Amino acid sequence: MSAANNRLDLTPPAVVKTLARWMAIAGALLAVISLVLAFRRPDEFYRAYLLAFMDWLGVALGSMAIIMIRHLTGGGWGVVIRRVQGAAMRTLPVLTVLFIPILIAVAQHRIYPWAMPLASVSDEHIREHLAKNSFVTASYLNFSGFLSRAVIYFAIWNVLSFLLSKWSKEADSSNTRDNTERFKRVSGPGLILYAFTISFAAIDWVMSLDPTWISTIFGLIILIGEVLAAMCFAVFVERILYDYKPMSELLKPEFVHDHGKWMLTFIMVWAYFSFSQWLIIWAGNLPNEITFYLKRLSGGWGWIGLILALFHFCVPFAILLSRPLKRNIRQLVWVALWLLFMRWLDLFWMIEPNFSKTLRFTLADIVVSCALGCIWMAFYFRNLGSLPLLPAYDASIGEVLESKHG
Question: pTM, whole model, 2 decimals?
Answer without folding.
Answer: 0.95
